């Protein structure tokens, strides 16, 4: 069994932090995407090879556990290893660490493929497979998926289906070039960015029902993403959201992202989140009033 290797070193920029005062969830995926591409270069998928094949590394799925919140100025190191080579897919484990505090900030499991620029899948070169097999690691049990299962995804939903289910309309916008990669396709972090921009339409329904004078926010504990399509600059994107279940402190919620003009799914995601006391930096027991608001948004047969 191999050891994790460093694939990225950086720090938390002020502009990467959100209204909660910590590193926004989309930048965990941004750093994971950079680390994945650096790892793939180490496996033999360097810029020249990808250019010759007119290929790119494509992320099919993410599972993220947010373990310790990070603030502006925090140093970060990303370590990675291969969990398995499944057919033409690489299953990769990435661990984001704050070396100054000697703590794991997040763990990310990524399923990736090699795609042509046309988005058609390509076979993995034998040399890449051989290199990947030399880097096989075990996922630490304490950082493995916990609140969101990694079962077989459902068939891609449609916007019409989401509307029939009564899901909450939380986002509508045109994809700007600033959310895209150089080739015009939506950047990995921007899927999560859309959720970050849309979720206040859900949270605003419960914030005023809790404690008016208390500074409250939300914090994600875990996310699973399934990516169906890669929108391009100029595409019209809509999001529908729902609460799946409610616990003592945590609640499960889900989002479906669509091409608003075709009605086809772009991505589906499920998360576990808490209501956060911004001063105490701790999760609150969900008050009865907030529970009532959340319950009104529950769609029990939601899945990704």
How is this fold's topology laid out?
Elements: E1 5-11, H1 25-42, H2 47-53, E2 55-66, E3 75-86, E4 89-98, E5 103-116, E6 121-122, H3 126-133, H4 159-164, E7 168-174, H5 188-198, H6 200-207, E8 216-227, E9 236-246, E10 250-259, E11 265-277, E12 282-283, H7 288-295
Antiparallel strand pairs: 1-3, 2-5, 2-8, 3-4, 4-5, 5-6, 7-9, 8-11, 9-10, 10-11, 11-12
Number of distinct helices = 7
CATH superfamily of the largest domain: Hotdog Thioesterase
Rg over CA atoms, rounded to whole Å, is 19 Å
Structural class: alpha+beta
Report low-confidence residues grouped into runs of 5 or more.
none
Strand content: 35-45%
What does this structure look like?
- This protein has two domains: 1-146, Thiol Ester Dehydrase, Chain A, CATH 3.10.129.10; 150-304, Thiol Ester Dehydrase, Chain A, CATH 3.10.129.10.
- It contains seven helices and twelve strands.
- The protein has helices at residues 25-42, 47-53, 126-133, 159-164, 188-198, 200-207, 288-295, and strands at 5-11, 55-66, 75-86, 89-98, 103-116, 121-122, 168-174, 216-227, 236-246, 250-259, 265-277, 282-283.
- Strands 1, 2, 3, 4, 5, 6, 7, 8, 9, 10, 11 and 12 form a twelve-stranded antiparallel beta sheet that branches.
- The model has no long low-confidence stretch (mean pLDDT 93).
């Amino acid at each position: 069994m191999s050891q994790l290797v460093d694939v990225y070193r950086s720090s938390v920029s002020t502009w990467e932090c959100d209204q909660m005062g910590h590193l926004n969830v989309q930048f965990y995926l941004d750093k994971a995407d950079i680390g994945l591409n650096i790892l793939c270069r180490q496996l033999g998928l360097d810029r020249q090879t990808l250019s010759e094949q007119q290929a790119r590394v494509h992320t099919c799925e993410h599972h993220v556990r947010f373990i310790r919140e990070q603030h502006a100025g925090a140093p970060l190191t990303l370590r990675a290893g291969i969990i398995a080579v499944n057919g033409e897919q690489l299953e990769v484990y990435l661990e984001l660490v704050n070396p100054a505090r000697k703590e794991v900030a997040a763990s990310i499991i990524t399923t990736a493929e090699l795609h042509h620029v046309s988005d058609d899948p390509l076979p993995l070169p034998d040399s890449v497979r051989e290199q990947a097999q030399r880097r096989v690691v075990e996922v630490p049990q304490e950082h493995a998926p916990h609140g969101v299962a990694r079962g077989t995804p459902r068939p891609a939903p449609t916007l019409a289906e989401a509307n029939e289910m009564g899901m909450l309309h939380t986002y509508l916008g045109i994809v700007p070039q600033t959310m895209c990669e150089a080739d015009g396709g939506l950047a990995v972090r921007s899927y999560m960015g859309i959720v970050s921009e849309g979720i206040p339409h859900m949270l605003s329904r419960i914030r005023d029902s809790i404690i008016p004078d208390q500074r409250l926010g939300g914090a994600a504990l875990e996310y699973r993403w399934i990516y169906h399509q890669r929108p391009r600059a100029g595409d019209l994107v809509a999001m529908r959201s729902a609460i799946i279940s409610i616990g003592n402190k945590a609640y499960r919620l889900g989002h479906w992202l669509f091409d608003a003009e075709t009605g086809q799914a772009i991505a589906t995601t499920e998360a576990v989140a808490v209501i956060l006391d911004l001063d105490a930096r701790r999760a609150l027991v969900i008050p009865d009033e907030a529970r009532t608001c959340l319950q009104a948004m529950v769609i029990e047969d939601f899945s990704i």
